[in-house]
Amino acid sequence: MEMNEILEKLPAHLMSLVIDQPYDEYSAQDHAVWRYVMRQNVRYLGKVAHGSYLEGLKKTGISLDKIPSMYGMNRILKDIGWAAVAVDGFIPPSAFMAFQAYNILVIAADIRPVDQIGYTPAPDIIHEAAGHAPIIADPVYADFLRRFGEIGSRAFLSPQDYKLYEAIRHLSIIKADPYSLKETIEKAGQHLADCANNMGKPSELAKIRSLHWWTVEYGLIGELENPKIYGAGLLSSIAESANCLKPHVKKLPLTVEAANFNFDITEPQPQLFVTPDFDTLNKVLDEFADTMALRRGGLYGLQQAIRSENTGTCVYSSGLEVSGTFTRVLEWNGEPVYIQTTGPTSLNFGGRELQGHGKTIHNEGFGSPVGKIRYLSIALEDFSEEELGQVGIILGECVNLDFESGVHVTGLIRGLMIMEGKLILISFTNCLVSFEGKVLFEPAWGVYDMAVGKKIVSVYSGPADAKAFGLNYPVPAEKTHKIKHDVHTLKLHAIYQKVREIRGNSCSYALLPSLWEELKNEHPGDWLCALEILELLRNKQINDDLNREITQSLHSKQSSEPAISKLIADGLEII
Fold first, then answer.
1. How far apart are CA 148 and CA 161, in angstroms?
2. What sections of 179-260 are H helices per DSSP?
3. What is the rounded CA–CA span in Å between residue 141 and residue 209?
4. For the segment 236-293, what is each residue's pLDDT rounded down to a tens digit?
5. What is the DSSP string of 424-486?
6. What are the percentages of helix, strand and coil residues in the chain, rounded to 5?
7. Rounded to whole angstroms, how far apart are CA atoms 325 and 304?
């Protein structure tokens, strides 16, 4: 992968999900699928998509005739402040959001099979490159997408969310494999349905994924009665883009309530949401963010962290950040008064791990009070060093701290940490911590590091300092299938390749009759290559008899195979 100034900012824990685009593995049929979809998109979407779509195609360097190389795209994308990377199918939702926060489009390297040319539930290069990339040429939308990534990557997920993600990934992988057995697909579909029906109360991530779906993926823009398309899922699906504007699909004004509408990736959507403009997207995103632990903090935020059973960070009002797996919070009058993590924990400030307070030091967990001292009118974090001495907070001295909540801390002060004028940490030896008659820390347990802060102002998913904490998104164990085609299919691909070479003027048009004979006799189910041969004949105005025969064959397929009738009709119209 060629690096540039945008890609170089990508942290290691995201780079582990990046793969090389397997460009040489795309078959001529794959390029034909891309060409068909893109030409249909330009023909149709030019009339119904947001005005920035066609201009965005030009700005992002996306060709209509062949699958784009991400190297080429990146040379152009960097001029609008973005980049693209290839990944293997669906990646964990938090990671997907994190890439967006770094102004990077995640592009699934595979392309849909011809039997899913109208719509595919799996992410593919058509969806990502031809759906997402053109719209980010609009600066307001691009800023929204980046902010969505920043906020979404900090949303808490539940253990059920990850099970659902794995079920979606598995189903998308086997459905994209033309050799998967029907029974295998049905079993995977049932497993996904079972996961979806046992999610419990929706997590923050589940809700923001829904908001992402109804905006970034399936969003409409403009007037409610006559909207335009901007969502990548619609822009990349020639079936859904035509279906979505019909009256039977309900159009609702976009509000934060969209986050409460579930979606099914395997079915056409029964309703869609319309934003009047891209600025409104940011307003709705901010309204949703105000409901998250990221901005609410407090008891709610800590409860979300505990429910997630994964690494989270709570931020004290002093600026101290505690990163670990939260397992307990004690409360008093509806407010958290003591936090507890289990397992490796780090203390941070300003997104950087504090020296001497990494996971190896706090490897068994971390606990600390939250709140104000009973006899002090000012919060401890706001005292100057001189004022701390006046209230008995002195190095080498013993002190008794009674919190308004009833938490009691007594011990010998061995260290004070002040950052940017704020006291954030007091270290004790011979320390006893108790609450309502229960001991929370005993002197025999060693040094006690007490966080300082009158309240928890923010709680979010993931560590404050990802690199120091060693954050890592595990590479999915189940890989997208590398399709091993049988001999019969490889012969079909060879016909596509010859047709492609004729279009590129590296082979003679005189080969077309024999290619058609082989296609007709050996691969009677094909329609896309037939269209490509017909296009070449009509462009050169040659061999009217062959022209008529292929046209008649395609019309016959339209009559006998309703599932591909519209695809053929649209192909004929374009040529």
1. 19
2. 182-196, 204-212, 232-235, 238-243
3. 18
4. 887 788 889 999 999 999 999 999 998 877 777 899 999 999 999 999 999 999 999 9
5. EEEEEEEEEEEETTEEEE-GGG--EEEE--SSEEEEEES-SSHHHHT---PPPSSPPP-----
6. 45, 20, 35
7. 11
Angle at alpha carbon of residue 215, lines to 209 and 219, rounded to 5°: 140
- Measured CA to CA, the distance from residue 554 to residue 566 in angstroms comes to 11
Residue 225: partners with Cβ closer than 8 Å, 6 or more residues away: 251
Query: How many CA atoms, within 13 angstroms, populate the side-chain half-sphere of residue 127?
Result: 26
**SS3 category, 192:** helix
Q: Which residues contact 324 (CB under 8 A, 6 or more apart)?
A: 311, 312, 341, 342, 343, 344, 345, 346, 362, 365, 366
Contacts (Cβ under 8 Å, ≥6 apart) of 276: 221, 222, 223
Quote the CA–CA distance of 449 and 26 in Å, as a whole number. Answer: 57
Across 145-179, b (16+ Cβ under 10 Å) vs e yields bbbbbbbbbbbbbbebbbbbbbbbbbbbbbbbbee
The model carries a pTM of 0.90
